[in-house]
Amino acid sequence: MLVTAGPTEEPIDPVRVITNASSGKMGYAVARAACEAGARVTLVSGPVALPTPAGVERIDVRTADEMLEAVKRSVADCDVFIAVAAVADYKVKNRAAQKIKKGAATGMSLDLTENPDILAHVAGLKDAPFCVGFAAESERLAENARAKREKKRIPLLAANLAQQALGADDNDITLFDDRGEHPLGRGSKLQLARKLVTHIAGMLAGEKRARAKA
Ligand code: C5P
């Protein structure tokens, strides 16, 4: 299994970045739960302050571009890709080589350009692994989650409310797949990660049975 976790950091100048409040806890819990279930796990991680779960191979990255490159290098080897990272949607177009000074300017604006969508890239590969996405929404969870699953063309999406999940040890997750909506309920991120891994294993077993019948 290949898992992405944490935020990404997009540099503005040598000392400043654009980032977000993702702690990485959910992605690390998913990596740990997958490893406990017997998977060989590679974790591509943005900058976080968390220990590497036992048995997990961790690759540290900083920017979305670096995360995409690390994922591209590992993806051919994996059966399941779980994108938990809160990837920055935008990066700074012309990052300054030197620290930007405060000064005469009355205002300041940053020119932004879109980052690659890592999950969409992997889901679009010819021999794509089984892809799982995460959605952190601030409102209309089910509606946004269903739309996101279809847009990204992925079999499974885990949705949570951003304001509940960010930085917390607990979460409340609902899964969305072809069969509909599956609330996992509230619990620690590790408990929910274990339920997610069990759900993925069930879906993979179902796929295998369907292939055997065909
Ligand atoms: O479109 P949105 O960012 O809300 O989608 C969230 C899902 O897509 C998460 O699974 C996240 O890890 C993944 N994603 C990604 N690369 C991006 C943006 C999101 O892999 N640039």
Could you characterize what this model shows?
By secondary structure, this protein is of the alpha/beta class. It has helices at 25-36, 64-75, 118-123, 141-152, 162-165, 189-213; strands at residues 2-5, 10-11, 17-18, 42-45, 57-60, 80-83, 90-92, 112-114, 130-137, 156-161, 170-177, 180-188. The strands form 3 sheets. Strands 5-4-1-6-9-10-11-12 form an 8-stranded mixed β-sheet, sandwiched between helices. A two-stranded antiparallel ribbon has the order 2-3. A two-stranded antiparallel sheet has the order 7-8. Strand 2 and strand 3 (17-18) form a beta hairpin. Helix 1 (25-36) packs across helix 6. It is globular, with a radius of gyration of 18 Å. The mean pLDDT is 94. The protein binds cytidine-5'-monophosphate. Residues 4, 64, 83-85, 87, 115-119, 133-135, 148 line the site of cytidine-5'-monophosphate.
